[in-house]
Amino acid sequence: MNTSTHPTVPFFKMHGSGNDFVLLDNRSLGLPREAMAQWARRICRTAFGVGADGLILLNRAPAGAPADYVWDFYNADGSRAAMCGNGSRCAARLAYELGMAGREHVLGTDAGPIRARVNPQAGTVRVQLTPPHGLTLDTALDVDGRQCTVHFVDTGVPHAVLFPEGLAALDVRALGRALRTHPHFAPAGTNVNFARVDAPDAMTLRTYERGVENETYACGTGAAATVLVANALGLVGEEVRVTTSGGEVLQIGLENGTVFLEGPAVTTYRGEMFLDSLGLTLP
Fold it and tell me: 3-130+266-278 is classed in which CATH architecture?
């Protein structure tokens, strides 16, 4: 391939506890919103694209917006998401490194403003999530002939939470898909979290993510939702370490109705995408 004749776009590949994303600086790219869903589907494909759970585009904040910058976030299937906890931590770290914002700043999302604090020495980011709502406990649902006790809360995106026996051996993909599309959560569906309480300050979590349509290595808003539910049930306190299926730990803090999420945000590599190889064109 004569690379000089093929249009390219620079990108960053990052992950938050194994939840991985492709990030684009849209200030210079100027990708219009109507093209973003297609770009997400093509870029996030494994084997044929870069491969990721989602696509994040960083943009200048509109005049008067209560944020230092804003994002456009798309799941791997091209669906737009209002919020993503691990994605927001990656966006915050990259925005700081690109000079778009200081160590403490505000990211504008579809779910509302997200306050972030970047710790570059530790490689971690702490974000204040949007206020949770819709907390509902102990709903009995029939899921493919199986009786399940399901809890629910929206932490920027909807999350169902269950505490099944045998978490390690659970078929998260099958049960997660069945709950994600259950009529009880229609029409939008829900993310689904399967959790185990290990101690008053420790939990283990596996998450089926809507939009990815599979189990992911971590989900920040899912970890927050799970701790909120477990705290409401009296199972854990207000500071909880959540071990994800990727083996990393997210710290969730509850303070007077406010939810904080803290964990690593890692840049694994940066590169250039050949757009014609992905079937994409510049605007």
Answer: Roll (3.10)
